[in-house]
UniProtKB/TrEMBL annotation:
Its main location: cytoplasm. The lineage of its organism: Bacteria, Bacillati, Bacillota, Negativicutes, Veillonellales. PANTHER family: GLYCINE--TRNA LIGASE, CHLOROPLASTIC_MITOCHONDRIAL 2, GLYCYL-TRNA SYNTHETASE. This is Glycine--tRNA ligase beta subunit. Keywords: Aminoacyl-tRNA synthetase, ATP-binding, Cytoplasm, Ligase, Nucleotide-binding, Protein biosynthesis. It catalyses: tRNA(Gly) + glycine + ATP = glycyl-tRNA(Gly) + AMP + diphosphate.
Length: 682
């Protein structure tokens, strides 16, 4: 026989962005703890609204499964004396296993106890299990309330805990479990009883609670689409915003609002940002892709007096847009170029100077990158965009709507008559802003974005502000990943250690400290690059091979990794074995000067001839990342390598001959060194 479990944790309103993680946790914890208790079930799911976290477990066994185990004890020599009688060791083992000593089994020279643990009644175990699930949940921030010592995301207000139709008795923070839940704050009629898990969803719906997030999502999308069709518009859907709205309401009703068309004269971003980021509204485009003076939103309730709610939302948005219009008009009175001097008034970061200092460093770094990568961009354009890059932070629009940094800088630069590529780069410097975001597409934007991020990261590390597993207040991890993706997408072969050194010189970091900071930055960037490769499901042997380098070059490492995978390098066992033997011989040797006059054997001459021939061809393949072609060439030298290693004594008694043979091997190994650390491929 089986029953169902229902757990509903009633709280005050939980932040919407916490809910997906909480529902995932409660489901995983339930599975883990039921499995650990040997309690079988058929399915688990988690549901929730802003005020409740629900766990539904179907087909739960009414009794733990019996567990049989074969436990190993002492050896026969220890367990029995010379007369075959059990010793104290055997009796102690049997006692510990709760069986008679004569029931011990001898097998493979040891004694074993076959023990069967009879499962307990599930009902008696559930109070502790459910309580443990609740107290094991973790949150970005938790709180305590009243005189309680329990930490939870929000104060607990009620608990529903049922096994079948019976209450699972326990209490947390003076809240006793039962069958009573609470209805919708405004539409519900107060408390109501839940008879069982099977009736939970429908009973909650009767009290204006849509407890299934997926059902709420479909109600919202259907409502939005109906309204969009009526207005002839296309919804500007934002999945992150939609997820947030889903967990802001318990009973969703879609509505459409309107704002004055005069606001459409504002830059589109200045309208959309207040809508989405401040009011949680969804904008719409017309059939031609133009922004409409309409918005969609969701009411936490039914459609009663919906027009009143609509007007209220319109008034709030109108006030926001009035502010945006005022700020925009005021900002236009002063060009970005006229704000450059004012950057001196704003501290970028304590220890790293002002925004004016930042702009001057950006000018130097962008020019450095331009010449290092031989990109051919005009230095004057780089200096201009660097000077203007942060000036929009001084505008009223960005001060009010910080999400518009870069966006408004681009708009104002266009209005000021700056070159289009300069205006675009001011926006692109902040890309990517989050995981999966777009990367800069223009060369100027890529250079400025790299310079900005590398300056911030290097400067922070120079001050000892290195991110930890739980602390990254300056978003250095995100900026590091952004740098790596920009470099790999652009295919720019750049040794980042040279850039670190250059920026540290601009920061006047103590010379004695620079090497340490560069090492820290190299380790940090390398780990992030490794994580990127791992997220792409790349073979860890390949990752370790290409990252074992004295230089930090993300684009080159990515190209080499892709080439190694395409060449199926790990299947080249004979090749790898031969060159690994060579690598083990030379260790860290670097000298490659070979004197053919010192050769004493045919194997030396053959290897030298093979290496000399390969040097003329294999590096041509490396230059274009044709590892397949390089492998084909290198394979021609494998017989000569093996013949040499099998038949020639490298440690010759004549020091000159010994050194010459070591140099020949070093020169041989240099043929495969561009691939990476081949030892990591085994």
């Amino acid at each position: 026989m089986s029953k169902d479990i229902l757990l509903e944790i009633g709280t005050e309103e939980i932040p919407a962005h916490y809910m997906p993680s909480i529902l995932s946790q409660v489901k995983d914890l339930a599975a883990k703890k039921l499995d650990a208790a040997n309690i079988t079930y058929t399915s688990i799911r988690s549901l929730g609204t802003p005020r409740r976290i629900a766990l539904l477990v179907a087909g739960v066994a009414e009794k733990q499964a019996d567990v049989s185990a074969k436990n190993k004890g002492p050896s026969v020599k220890i367990a029995f004396d010379a007369e075959g009688k059990p010793t104290k060791a055997a009796m102690g083992f049997a006692r510990g296993q709760k069986i008679a000593v004569e029931d011990l089994v001898v097998e493979d020279g040891y004694v074993y106890a076959n023990v069967t643990t009879i499962g307990a009644e599930t009902a008696g175990l559930l109070p502790d299990i459910l309580k443990d699930i609740i107290l094991s949940l973790s949150f970005p921030k938790s709180m305590i309330w009243g005189s309680q010592t329990v930490h939870f995301v929000r104060p607990l207000r009620w608990l529903v805990a049922l096994f079948g139709t019976d209450v699972i008795p326990f209490s947390i923070a003076n809240v006793q479990s039962g069958k009573i839940s609470r209805g919708h704050r405004f539409l519900g009629t107060g408390d109501f009883e839940i008879p069982s898990m099977a009736a939970y969803v429908d009973t909650a719906r009767d009290h204006f609670l849509i407890v299934d997030p997926e059902e709420r999502k479909q109600m919202i999308l259907a409502g939005f689409q109906r309204l969009a069709d009526e207005k002839g518009g296309t919804i500007m859907m934002d999945e992150d915003l939609l997820e947030e709205v889903i967990f802001l309401v318990e009973y969703p009703t879609a509505l459409c609002g309107e704002f004055d068309k005069e606001f459409l004269q504002l830059p589109e971003a200045a309208i959309i940002t207040p809508m989405k980021d401040h009011q949680r509204y969804f904008p719409m485009h017309d059939k031609d892709g133009n922004l409409m003076n309409l918005f969609l939103t969701v009411r936490n309730g039914d459609d009663y007096h919906l027009e009143t709610v609509q007007h209220g939302n319109e008034r709030v948005l109108r006030a926001r847009l009035d502010d945006a219009k005022f700020f925009f008009e005021e900002d236009k009175k002063k060009k970005l170029s006229d704000r450059v001097g004012d950057l001196q008034r704003i501290v970028f970061q304590d220890g790293l100077g002002t925004l004016k200092d930042k702009a001057e460093r950006l000018s130097a770094i962008t020019v450095f990158l331009n010449h290092k990568l031989d990109l051919g961009v005009e230095d004057e354009d780089l200096k201009r965009v660097s000077a203007l890059a942060k000036t929009d932070l001084l505008t009223q629009m960005v001060a009010e709507f910080t999400e518009l940094q870069g966006v408004m800088g681009c708009e104002y630069a266009k209005i000021d008559g700056e070159k289009p590529e300069i205006a675009t780069a001011i926006y692109e410097q902040y890309l990517p802003r989050f995981a999966g975001d777009d990367l800069p597409q223009t060369t100027l934007g890529k250079i400025l974005g790299l310079a900005d991020k590398l300056d911030t990261i290097t400067g922070s590390f120079s001050l000892g502000l290195i991110p930890t597993g739980s602390q990254d207040p300056f978003a250095l991890r995100r900026q590091t990943i952004g740098c790596l993706h920009i470099l790999m997408e652009a295919g720019w072969n750049l040794n980042l250690q040279e850039v670190f050194a250059y920026i540290l010189s601009l920061l006047d970091t103590e010379a004695a400290k620079r090497a340490t900071v560069i090492d820290q930055l190299t380790d940090y960037f390398t780990l992030r690059l490794k994580n990127i490769f791992q997220d792409e499901d790349m073979d860890y042997h390949i990752i370790d091979c290409v990252l074992a380098s004295d230089t930090l070059n993300a684009a080159e490492a990515a190209k080499r990794a892709d080439a190694l995978i395409a060449a199926d390098i790990r299947s080249q066992e004979d090749l790898l074995q031969a060159f690994t033997r060579v690598g083990n011989m030379i260790k860290d040797a670097e000298d490659t000067d070979v004197d053919p006059n010192l050769f004493e054997t045919e194997e030396e001459k053959a290897l030298y001839a093979a290496v000399t021939a390969l040097e003329n061809t294999v590096h041509q393949h490396y230059a274009v990342y044709d590892i397949t072609g390089a492998i084909q060439e290198l394979s021609k030298g494998v017989p000569a390598i093996n013949n040499f290693l099998d038949n020639v004594l490298v440690m010759h008694e004549n020091p000159a001959v010994k050194e010459n043979r070591m140099n020949l091997l070093t020169r041989t190994f240099d043929l495969i060194r561009p691939i990476g650390d081949i030892k990591k491929l085994n």
